[in-house]
Amino acid sequence: MTASSVDEVGQRSVQSAGGVGGRPNQHRRRTHRPPGLPWILPALILSVGLIYYGIGYTGYISTLNWDGISPDAQHVGTHNYARIFHDPVFWAAVRHTVVFFVVTFVIQTGLGLAFAVIMHARLKLAAVYKVIIFVPVVLAPAIMAPVFRHMFAPDGELNGVLRAVGLGSLAQPWIGQTSTALPVIMFITIWEWTGVTFVLYYAAMTQIDPAILEAARMDGAGPVRTLMSIIWPEMRGTTVALAILGAIGALKTFDVPYLVTIGGPNYATEFLGTYIYRQTIPLDHVGYGAALSIILLVVALVMAVILQWAGRDRKARD
Amino acid sequence: MRPKIRLSAAVVAALVASVLTACGGSGGSSDPGSATSGTINWWGWTPTDTATAQNYISAFNKQYPNIKVNYKLVNISDWVAALRPALASGKGPDVFDMQPGAYVTQFKSFAEDQTSLAQQALGSDWKSKVAPIGISGLTADGKLTAMSVGAVYAGMLWINGNLFKQYNLQPPKTLDEWKQVCQAFKSHNVGCFVQGAAQEGFDQDTLQSIANSVQPGLWTKASTGDAKWNDPGIVKTLEIWKDLFTGGIMQPGAVGYQQYPDSNNDFLTGKYAMVMMGTWYTQYATTKAMTAALSAAGVSGAKPFPILPIAFPDVAGAGNSSEMYGDADFGLAISTKSKSRAAAETFVKWMTTTTAGQQVIADQLNDLPALKSVTPDFDSIQLVDPASQKSPVQDLVTKVGNVTEPREALLSADVQTAILAAATSVATGKASPQDAANTLQQAAEAAGETFK
User: Fold this and answer.
1) Helix (H), strand (E) at residue B310
2) Does a structural domain hold residue A139?
3) Residue B91 gets which letter from DSSP?
4) What is the distance in angstroms between the Cα of B78 and the nearest Cα belonging to chain A?
5) What is the pTM of this model?
6) Does residue A194 sit within a domain?
7) Chain B residues closer than 8 Å to A37 by CB
8) Per-residue confidence of chain A (318 residues) as pLDDT tens digits?
9) Could you tell me the domains of chain B?
10) Is A6 helix (H, G, I), strand (E, B) or coil?
11) In what helix (H) or strand (E) does residue B334 lie, and over which residues does it extend?
């Protein structure tokens, strides 16, 4: 409930109690207005108590050489951070994150926009297609991971189909070699999240004034020209929002690579999330994992500032 | 406003206190509880199927009907993530599996010292009655963190007897023979050898066996710091490892495979004829366990087939016999925070020190029992094909009785990770055997391993 609505409710209750306005009633309303602290206390505890305390504590343990449970943690200052910059797996994870974001964002955007445009045409069974496109979004990766592991196995369905259509030479151990494991992870992610891109573009397209499209048609613009010169520019806000979501998603990527390839083979699908987990839990390097988490936080903050700045710049131009 | 501020501060303090109290959990209990009744929770990654664990518990309950044991199976890949917070919070298991090596280091502070339990159950000369491999690996800082249930050994292969018989093939004894056998299977569209090369423990087994073929004992020397990980013998080991991939022995995409469930299921479903597994696989020589395993692998109505242990081939061609190696498979640790410590001690004592408990373990063929006086009763064990299996299985059980070479007990989690990185980087062609060995040596030094 917002502050204004609280005031309105308070005012109405005072009026219904017999007041007809005037100073005495205003005084009574101020007197009986509930204190603000209890209203914000849950959010305050959640944000300050958990999130900011958590960040601060993570920052502290990032200066320790600690396994997470032993009482004798060793203070190592910035050693963990110095180690990160010489850690080839960390840089591999960064590279994978960048490639993953660029590829998944571009393809998801293209597919989502294309589906949205097609669905806005008068298509039979459009509702069915919408459901089919959106269903992967609601399926848990933990459920789908074994399916994909089977599908991309050397004797899995994909290779079976390739062999059946005479393309057996293209059959690969898709998740068992470094060259194709990351593309498989990106494929799964695109399959999973294109539904969200489609829904957002589809909703945004309903906001375009039909008169503009009609005017373009009357001026002789074909479907492609209309798409590129009218629809796409109108989608800019949605695209920026999807870019932000995609970037955040890339930084947080954990479930699909962990469940499908365990970050392998040979770290070929290692991401920051999987690497932090690997260091913190199986290897007990809680201090080093915390330092990686702080680096991830800094990268996310820098990215947020850049995107925020880009958004302001756009408004200024507009 | 001051009363309000005070009230608010009190509310905040109360909430923070309640949160902190909730986070703090409960500590250990000084009252050990009853030794003959109560409920205890046992967490383990092995036995890998709950039916086996239930079999142990049922036998235990014949003697102690008033102690209820709840077994919770946790996948080994999730073991540390699940157990650490559970033990730290005090809400975890009363009894938990312990394995020599990294787990002892990680969880020793949560485990009761069981030295007095062993003395009480077996007498002052208890060490002479238990397999030594089950004591050393589970002892840390002078504390016996767990009592060994049994031991497992590795360093051999298991083959599908039916497939070898069907295609009239003999088990390979050298690297060249192994390649020829694989070619023969491939010509019949049957997979040859399957390995979950994405998991470090099983890569280590294969690498240790290759190293023992190159130079017996070298792997253990590198593990103890008596030799370096970039010793020429280790480089040669990695070269042969690479040859398994390029020579058509390893299945395509092996570095993306996990031993469990991928390789296990592929072998049990007859897709591949050979697999690198240890003595824990002996249980699948029995009709009962093989039938259950086939069902778990998703094969409905499949007929159990005989599996046979064979020696690891002399892949280096140096004439070295196949040395096996082993550790205590798992011991049972008692949580320092258990509220049913006495009942937990009764269960652990029965499982690890009594003839009745150890006989159940032995006859399951998942582990070779910790008590020296107990051996599997082959007259009561129903093998799939006794004619072909009884002799090699009995020979295996006899052979491992003399094994002293450790399997994983000497390796830290960091070194194991570095071994996996070396194995997969060589297998995928990202590093030469020499470069991978050099990187492994650097990683071992960085992990604190000291070398002479």
Assistant:
1) strand B307-311
2) yes
3) -
4) 9
5) 0.80
6) yes
7) 4, 8
8) 333 443 443 444 434 443 344 444 555 555 566 678 888 888 888 888 888 899 999 999 999 999 887 778 899 999 999 999 999 999 999 999 999 999 999 999 999 999 998 998 878 888 899 999 999 999 999 999 989 998 998 888 999 999 999 998 999 889 988 899 999 999 999 999 999 999 999 999 988 888 988 898 888 888 888 888 888 888 888 998 898 889 989 999 999 999 999 898 889 999 999 999 999 988 889 999 999 999 999 998 888 788 777 766 555 555
9) 25-151+327-369 (3.40.190.10), 156-223+231-323+392-409 (3.40.190.10)
10) helix
11) strand B325-334
